[in-house]
Write a structure and sequence with these properties.
Blueprint lengths: L3 E5 L4 H12 L3 E6 L7 H10 L4 E4 L5 H10 L4 E4 L6 H6 L1 H22 L3 E7 L23 H19 L4 E7 L1 E3 L18 H9 L6 E4 L11 E2 L1 E3 H15 L4 E7 L5 E2 H12 L5 E4 L8 E2 L4 H7 L7 H14 L7
Parallel strand pairs: 1-2, 1-4, 2-3, 4-5, 5-6, 6-11, 7-10, 8-13, 9-14
Antiparallel strand pairs: 9-12
């Protein structure tokens, strides 16, 4: 396979696992990343795992001159777009930064793509765009746009922008991948989630508590209408998620226009269920403290992955135990992430 894929934000958590999957599938890979919330060590490890080389360009996707140069120097066939800021709390405090990075960054990317004659794009969106679900499981027909924070709104704005592009020009082939809660790591233990400072997501935080790096896990809300009172979420292994991007890329070859696909397992797990499974797999006790619910959190959120199965031939294959086993292996092998 001679196709060359540009992966923006390819040194980050999901981007790095997808870049690896692309290399393993025979694609040529170019990564552009400004390393603001990632490490180029992940890319070195990708090459080590795959035995294949990729091209890395350190830069910001808002730099349209840089993008133009990247497209001019390589025959790029498609783009997988991860680059952007992604912390909900930070987005509330710094909304302009999020709209600049996530919306303006995508705008610059699309302008550069048009100039280069590249019209195939897979966009990293998320289930947050659905807001508080009207029914479960969440399928793609459910109304979207009821986001509760600037991070989620930036994703929704980009989705609308890409939909408008596809409607305006029949050459565009766009996949909007709304994924649920990515966790896990590559089974080699060489690449995984590498949060700066205090983790924003559940699994890295649980792993750090299990490793003794943090004293306790704070669980926000234990009075939800769920089977144990804690929030229920659809957790998906990052390797299944990476594979979903490959299936979407392949599908776009036959599917012009703009398409939405949920990537999830279709099964929800509560926070306490995740904690108990982590304790069983790691052999470590995890201290839990309960706090009030957070504004904007919903009781339950899990996907209907039926459309992705029907149209992409994709389904999640790895269960919660594999997700947690791989998370713990990554934590044990890399106690300080890519810093060690």
């Amino acid at each position: 396979m001679n196709s060359t894929i540009l992966v923006t934000g390819g040194a980050g958590y999901i981007g790095s696992h997808t870049a690896l999957s692309l290399l393993d599938a025979g694609y040529q890979v170019i990564v552009i990343d400004n390393l603001s919330n990632s490490s180029d060590i992940s890319l070195q490890r990708i090459e080590r795992i795959s035995g294949k080389a990729l091209k890395f360009i350190k830069g910001d996707i808002r730099d349209i001159q840089l993008l133009s140069r990247v497209f001019n120097e390589s025959q790029i066939n498609a783009v997988v777009h991860f680059a952007g800021l992604k912390a909900v709390g930070e987005s509330v405090k710094q909304p302009l930064q999020y709209y600049d990075n996530n919306v303006n960054g995508t705008l610059a990317l699309c302008q550069a793509m048009v100039q280069a004659g590249v019209f195939s794009l897979v966009f990293s969106s998320l289930a947050t765009v659905y807001g508080d679900p009207m029914h479960l499981p969440i399928d793609e027909t459910q109304p979207a746009g009821k986001t509760t924070n600037p991070y989620g709104r930036s994703k929704w704005i980009v989705e609308q922008m890409l939909g408008d592009l596809a409607a305006s020009d029949a050459r565009w082939r766009v996949a909007l991948l709304r994924y649920f809660n990515p966790i896990g790591a590559h089974p080699s233990g060489l690449i995984g989630e590498n949060p700066n400072g205090i983790p924003n997501n559940l699994l890295p935080f649980v792993a750090q508590v299990a490793a003794g790096k943090r004293p306790a896990l704070t669980v926000f809300g234990n009075d939800y209408d769920t089977y144990d009172g804690t929030g229920v979420r659809d957790y998906i292994h990052v390797m299944d998620l990476a594979n979903g991007h490959l299936r979407a890329l392949e599908a776009l070859e036959q599917k012009p226009g703009c398409h939405v696909w949920n990537l999830g397992t279709g099964k929800g797990y509560s926070v306490l269920e995740v904690v108990k499974t982590f304790e069983a797999i790691s052999g470590r006790s995890i201290s839990v403290e309960f706090a009030d619910r957070r504004l904007g959190d919903v009781a339950s959120c899990y996907a209907s992955p039926a459309k992705a199965l029907h149209e992409l031939g994709w389904t999640a294959k790895l269960g919660l135990e594999e997700m947690i086993t791989d998370t713990w292996r990554w934590q044990v092998n890399n106690p300080d992430g890519y810093k060690n």
